């Protein structure tokens, strides 16, 4: 608004404010063509199209671009490539399927569930119709007729064709609505129609958001179904493989537990790097846990020394120090590297299961499988194998069970749980862990039979 305020008499100041606005919100860049077209002066070159260029709008363009480039350069010096990635590049590949007002919502929703890499990347081309209409066609047609009305329609089109849209985005074009209505018959001779349109607009939003909430956020439907269609005691889709990196490690595994995806590699038993790490009585277990920047919708660079990661790493090291027959491998180190590729709930349980498989693949002796699962309590109803949304909305715990017994190798409470329901929740979690154990055992036997057949 400051850019528009200073446009008539102080175009350089106006250009500065527009460059600053683009730095903070990107989308005001669509206003630049309209503003340049409204700045009239003697053309530099009297030829079609080129005659639109004059000294005043050329100066305006230079100041705007220089302001934007200068501020971006300062931010780049401060934050490096991470600034460019989060501010600009991320928007080219962002796949947010929870913005249900977007006309691309269903396409992005189904795309997010695909696991194949050979899919059409719709998120990379949705900018074409959006920018063609809002930044080129509308300015050429309307900018010189009525600048504010042109900006209103540009913003309306930009928001309508944006792949990310919620109610807050409507503010972008609503700031221009008073000017548009001042010249519209909806506020003079057609007031009833205007009121009807307002009621329909608010009513349609309310109706749409109500059902969107039921689909996306209501954790447990009256029919007894969870948000992803499972019953309370059903596991997510569970896929596992071992020996995925035979040339890079002694043992390896890959697990998909729902949309949570884990890679694990094991090196050892081997000589410790330094003698101070050597234990004459047993092997030393070292676990390195890495969560990739793209593992969640929140693109965050995580340091391996974060408190949460350190806590999980220590818990896992204690768990497997007791589960592995470390006394058989004195004066050695067993290094376990875990990478979280995608985190959609149950991360600790998926990591535990991946480590178990990788250790078995490495031929390291264990007392038994350690199979883990997460479970929670929603309105006093136990829920098994939680996804990320469920974990954020209810008290939950993660437990790891030794083999087919009821002995716990791991137990982590994420929140406070009523004692009256704890025993029931633990029994459900133990039963779920036994099912996970059967699935892992099936993969181990399948791989073992395959190796045995090659020896014949």
TrEMBL record:
SUPFAM superfamilies cross-referenced by the UniProt entry: Ribonuclease PH domain 2-like, Ribosomal protein S5 domain 2-like
Keyword vocabulary terms for this entry: Cytoplasm, Endoplasmic reticulum, Exosome, Glycosyltransferase, GPI-anchor biosynthesis, Membrane, Transferase, Transmembrane, Transmembrane helix
Pathway recorded for this protein: Glycolipid biosynthesis; glycosylphosphatidylinositol-anchor biosynthesis
Domain Exoribonuclease phosphorolytic: 234-364, 368-431
Organism domain of life: Eukaryota
Protein name: GPI mannosyltransferase 1
Function of the molecule: Mannosyltransferase involved in glycosylphosphatidylinositol-anchor biosynthesis. Transfers the first alpha-1,4-mannose to GlcN-acyl-PI during GPI precursor assembly. Required for cell wall integrity.
Entry GO MF terms: alpha-1,4-mannosyltransferase activity; GPI mannosyltransferase activity; RNA binding
Pfam family, one: RNase_PH_C
